[in-house]
Amino acid sequence: MEKTVLQTPHAPSPIGPYSQAIQANNLVFISGQIAIDPATDQMIKGDIVEETHRVMQNLKAILAAAGMDFQHVVKTTIFILDMQDFSAVNEVYGKYFQESFPARETVQVAGLPRGARVEIAMIAAK
Question: How large a percentage of the chain has pLDDT more than 90?
Fold first, then answer.
């Protein structure tokens, strides 16, 4: 198996001992992204909609570094702090995909890094 670490300055640097993404053969495993602005390395200030858009932009940058886009995504996991935000997160998330949506689960959690309200991880395939 060929394993490659993917890193782009257009997404936040990892805040722990992990990689932004790992490519293993034709699969790309993207670590969970939160609403950190890669230009400032700070959490953005805003509501759940703005936070979700920032997360999706971070994911988009990592996919681009792998030569992919959202059409390559086969699986996502959404971690959400409050299920009351589910509809808003779902609406923003849905704008980034067309038709053949990836498999997905959404899980409410007790807490996320840096006080984030949403974190999304992805698996993509070439």
Answer: 94
